[in-house]
Amino acid sequence: QVHLVESGGGSVQSGGSLRLSCVASGLAYDRPCMGWFRQSPGKEREEVASLERIGRTYYPDSTKGRFTISADYPKNTLYLQMNNLKPEDTAMYFCAARRDYAICSRSLGAYDYWGQGTQVTVSA
Question: Is the torsion defined by CA of 93, 55, 74, 113 positive or negative?
Answer without folding.
Answer: positive
